[in-house]
Amino acid sequence: MQRRSMFKWGPILIALVSLAVFYFRSESFENPITGRETRLGLSKDEEIALGLQGYNEVLSRSQVVESGPEVEMVRRVAKRLVNVVGDEGAGFEWKVSLVRSDEINAFCLPGGKIVVYTGILSVAQNEAGLATVMGHEIAHATSRHGAERMFDQGMVEIAMKGVQGSIEDLEPSQRQTILGIIGAGTKFGVLLPFSRKHELEADEIGLYYMTKAGYEPEEAVAFWKRMAEAGGAKPPEFASTHPSDDTRIRRLRELIPQIRERASGISNTSR
Ligand SMILES: [Zn+2]
């Protein structure tokens, strides 16, 4: 009688208790624009500190554009957007930089540090286009998506540790198979759908911010179409952190009428 190849329940129970502790210790967060409820793996202070550190790192190895019409436009758009963010940006110290790079990219780090690459300006084409991408990136920060991702990853890590412990006596090949299946399952079943949810939420809130700041929301549709053309070959939607261009554009179109109303303050009391 061999006592090898045993599945152990102890590590699973420990993982379940750890998951419960991790969950209940985390901060809950209700998105003020979409109403979506989440839990966060970082405090606001931690986010702000990490965001500042990341910002300084990026700037230290980049060519920052200090003057000229391009950076003036970026600053102008940032100012108009930040003005409409309101309480969601409480505690944020907003900063914006334009970096000389061909990369088609822009981001807003936790705590309100915005970086725009000159490469995206040709896709943005105008201020409303720039407001689309900057509004989207600011929405990631005000929705605290980074902290939510830390929470999700923390939960997945604890669960995986439990599984690893419970199968450590199994044959190596069996272990590999089980871990492979669970790894793919969490990636495609948990982490990527979460990222896509973040993208769509940032689209909605970004559209709201840009509209409230006085930009034409139809320009967001035009921007994402140009982005799709600039994007080239892409992985299929299920494997990507980004929603497919068709999904994104269709959803933005659907949202425009209600966003116009909310941005003009007509239905602000509905929530
Ligand atoms: Zn995004």
From TrEMBL:
Source species, domain of life:
Bacteria
Q: How are cofactors bound according to the entry's free-text note? A: Binds 1 zinc ion per subunit.
Kindly name one Pfam family recorded for this protein. Peptidase_M48
Peptidase M48 domain: from which residue to which, for each copy? 74-255
The cofactor named in the record is: Zn(2+)
Instruction: Output the InterPro entries linked to this UniProt entry.
Output: Mito/Outer_Membr_Metalloprot (IPR051156), Peptidase_M48 (IPR001915)
- Tagged with keyword Magnesium: no
The entry's protein name is: Peptidase M48 Ste24p
Organism, scientific name: Leptonema illini DSM 21528
